[in-house]
């Protein structure tokens, strides 16, 4: 009983493992420095339902319905990680219970240098198409979220700059009017002889703007005129800058609308770059053309960051470890059957021991 109860299940399990379909895996490596917080955000975005739906639809377009069904039917992140796993190198340090703020800050700033994506599948023939769909999503679809966040941050910063100009415009206008009034009064006080008189007195001040009331009247007028010119030029440049900020806000708002309207569909960075080129062709202002060219170069940089090393990663079969698991199963079943045999033997001996006692006549009476 011990022999059969141990050997047969172990052989059956080893045969089942051997007959189970072979799994294949391939790994893609990206040279992308990431802090732990950035890595966690990346995982949440990739494993989000809307992003997985994009991968599933892409796989169905390629005719890979079995793998698409596996992704679609997974209900937990652990199940997803059996199909698509992310890892970083070097690994992030463990956060220990430390009260030292310097240590905690160093851990927070630590960056992993390599990001790996391991893809697991059942069909070796489909691994190339599955890998292409997943890596294309990671390289050209997932950066759309970074582009959206960058646009939102840019819009917020430009709105703050435009608000600062609008806030300072009133104060500078009041100051300009004040200086003009001062110039008019100084001109009314000036007399013809004093305007043409030459003075041999040389005055030196550390801050002329704060000490100009001590200057001779003609020099005071020059200082006020210089101040008026400075305010006028500042207002003029601020007005030009404010107009530029409004145009950039309009453009960024249009770009953000393009992104927001495409988040739920399969929209890639190359498609967004094509849209940017269309905007560039329609632009007729040199300043905005320069801004768009700079933004296009910045957007292209995102695709370079997400370029994996190697063009054709090798597809490896996942080892089944049939012998190792079979021996382990044999040991486990041997222990179980030995325990059962001991219990059965003990029960049999107990029944044999109680048997003669039950046949003896009852005492007393």
What does this structure look like?
The structure is a single chain. With 365 residues, the protein is of the alpha+beta class. The chain has a domain at 2-142 and 310-317. It is 69% helix and 8% strand. The protein contains 14 helices and 7 strands. Strands 1, 3, 5, 6 and 7 form a 5-stranded antiparallel β-sheet that branches. Helix 3 crosses helix 7, helix 8 (143-189) runs antiparallel to helix 11 and helix 12 packs antiparallel against helix 13 (286-305). The radius of gyration is 40 Å and the shape is elongated. The two termini are 47 Å apart.
Sequence-ordered SSE layout with sheet pairings:
Elements: H1 2-19, E1 24-30, E2 34-35, H2 36-46, H3 49-61, H4 65-73, H5 77-81, E3 84-89, H6 101-109, E4 111-112, E5 114-121, H7 127-141, H8 143-189, H9 192-196, H10 208-211, H11 217-260, H12 269-282, H13 286-305, E6 308-309, E7 316-317, H14 322-359
Antiparallel strand pairs: 1-5, 1-6, 1-7, 2-4, 3-5
Helix pairs in contact: 1-14, 3-4, 3-7, 8-11, 12-13
């Amino acid at each position: 009983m011990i022999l059969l109860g141990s050997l047969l299940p172990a052989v059956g399990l080893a045969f089942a493992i051997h007959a189970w379909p072979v799994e294949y895996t391939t790994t893609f490596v990206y040279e992308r420095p990431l802090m732990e917080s950035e890595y966690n955000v990346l995982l949440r975005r990739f494993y989000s339902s809307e992003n997985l739906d994009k991968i599933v639809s892409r796989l169905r377009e390629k005719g890979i319905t079995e793998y698409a069904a596996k992704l679609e039917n997974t209900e937990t992140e652990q199940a997803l990680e059996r199909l698509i796993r992310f890892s970083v190198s070097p690994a992030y340090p463990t956060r220990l219970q430390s009260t030292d703020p310097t240590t905690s800050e160093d851990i927070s700033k630590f960056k992993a240098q390599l990001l790996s994506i391991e893809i697991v599948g059942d069909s070796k023939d489909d691994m190339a198409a599955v890998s292409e769909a997943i890596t294309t999503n990671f390289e050209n679809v997932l950066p759309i979220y970074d582009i959206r966040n960058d646009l939102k941050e840019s819009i917020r910063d430009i709105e703050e700059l435009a608000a600062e100009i609008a806030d300072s415009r009133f104060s500078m206008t009041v100051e300009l009017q004040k200086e003009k009034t001062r110039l008019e009064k100084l001109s009314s006080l000036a007399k013809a002889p004093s305007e043409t008189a030459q003075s041999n007195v040389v005055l030196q001040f550390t801050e002329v703007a704060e000490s100009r009331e001590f200057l001779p009247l003609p020099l005071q007028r020059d200082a006020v005129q210089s101040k008026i010119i400075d305010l006028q030029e500042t207002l003029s440049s601020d007005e030009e800058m404010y107009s530029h900020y409004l145009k950039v806000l309009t453009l960024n708002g249009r770009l953000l609308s393009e992104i927001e309207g495409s988040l739920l569909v399969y929209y890639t960075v190359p498609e967004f770059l094509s849209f940017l080129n269309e905007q560039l062709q329609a632009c007729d202002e040199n300043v905005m053309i320069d801004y768009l060219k700079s933004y296009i170069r910045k957007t292209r940089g995102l695709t370079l960051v997400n370029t994996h090393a190697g063009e054709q990663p090798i597809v490896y079969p996942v080892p089944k470890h049939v012998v190792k698991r079979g021996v382990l199963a044999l040991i486990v079943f041997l222990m179980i059957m030995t325990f059962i045999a001991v219990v059965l033997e003990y029960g049999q001996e107990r029944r044999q021991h109680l048997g003669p006692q039950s046949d003896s006549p009852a005492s007393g009476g």
